[in-house]
Amino acid sequence: MLDRFLHAYDHFDYKFLVFSGGADPVSERRYIKELLSYQIEGLIILSHMISSEELASYGIPTVVIEREDRFISSVNTDNYSGGVMAAELLIRNQCDLLIYVSTDSRQIVPSFDRYRGFLDTCKKAGIQHDAVFRDSVFSYEMMHRFSVDALNCITERYEGKRKGIFCSNDVLANIMLNCLFRKHGCLPEDYRIVGFDDSPIAREAVLPLSSVGQQFDLIVNEAMTLLNRQIHARKENPSCVIRPEHSLIKPQLIIRDTAPG
């Protein structure tokens, strides 16, 4: 997504300074203070380490993407609809039960709505369902270990049933797919997998992954539009109060080989 923001210069005529906090809130606060010293006009925040309340306290036009947004403007994918799409696809694949797998169980983050949509769809369809969460996963190695453990648990607990697994991102889905291929040489008939994001890893997986795709170009354009509106409002009236605005972008269901539907 970052590269799409950098290319937004052609339309919005803003130059970008990019800082990566490396999942360290202390570093991110230091970077933000440094950016403010450059007299920047606005902030786009992709990280989730600093609360929206703290971001709002800096008093500068700010838009966050897929992050907790109670006090700040945001653009998010319609995660609830994405969860519904994934669950319905797995149901169409005639799975006996559906399982949601995620590395974040915090209900305040927008991505938790993926689970809400999944859960409501399972209940409505009357299909057996389960969920596996693991918080505080900050590296690929930790995500890999969690994915392997989750898959082993699912395999042992639901042996003999056709299992539909909805992963909260494509990285988790790809790790599980690779584990199954190493063990069986294929995706067994009793497994179906759907990821989220439609990242390149989904398209280039050993077996292309079905995924709920985020429309990144629309997200970036909407975020820049919101930020631009706030910046111009502040220029016209430096003392104006910036009221949070929230936009949802519809996801797209991408059907591939791991859940053909």
Description:
The protein has helices at about 1-5, 10, 25-35, 50-55, 80-90, 110-125, 140-155, 170-185, 200-205, 215-235, and strands spanning about 45, 60-65, 75, 95-100, 130-135, 165, 190-195, 210-215, 245-250, 250-255. By secondary structure, it is of the alpha/beta class. The strands form two sheets. Strands 5-4-6-7-8-10 form a six-stranded mixed β-sheet, with helices on both faces. A four-stranded parallel β-sheet has the order 1-2-3-9.
Q: What's the order of the H and E elements?
A: HHHEHEEHEHEHEHEHEHEE
Number of helices: 10
The best one-word shape is elongated
**Distance N to C terminus:** 28 Å
**Strand residues, percent:** 15-25%
Arithmetic mean of pLDDT: 92
Q: Strand order, biggest sheet? A: 5-4-6-7-8-10
Furnish the topology, listing elements before pairings.
Elements: H1 2-6, H2 9-12, H3 25-37, E1 43-45, H4 52-57, E2 62-65, E3 73-77, H5 79-92, E4 97-102, H6 112-125, E5 128-133, H7 140-157, E6 163-167, H8 170-184, E7 191-197, H9 200-203, E8 210-213, H10 216-236, E9 246-249, E10 252-254
Parallel strand pairs: 1-2, 2-3, 3-9, 4-5, 4-6, 6-7, 7-8
Antiparallel strand pairs: 8-10
Helix pairs in contact: 5-6, 7-8
Short synopsis of the structure:
By secondary structure, this protein is α/β, with parallel strands linked by helices. It has helices at residues 2-6, 9-12, 25-37, 52-57, 79-92, 112-125, 140-157, 170-184, 200-203, 216-236; strands at 43-45, 62-65, 73-77, 97-102, 128-133, 163-167, 191-197, 210-213, 246-249, 252-254. Helix content is 44%, strand content 18%.
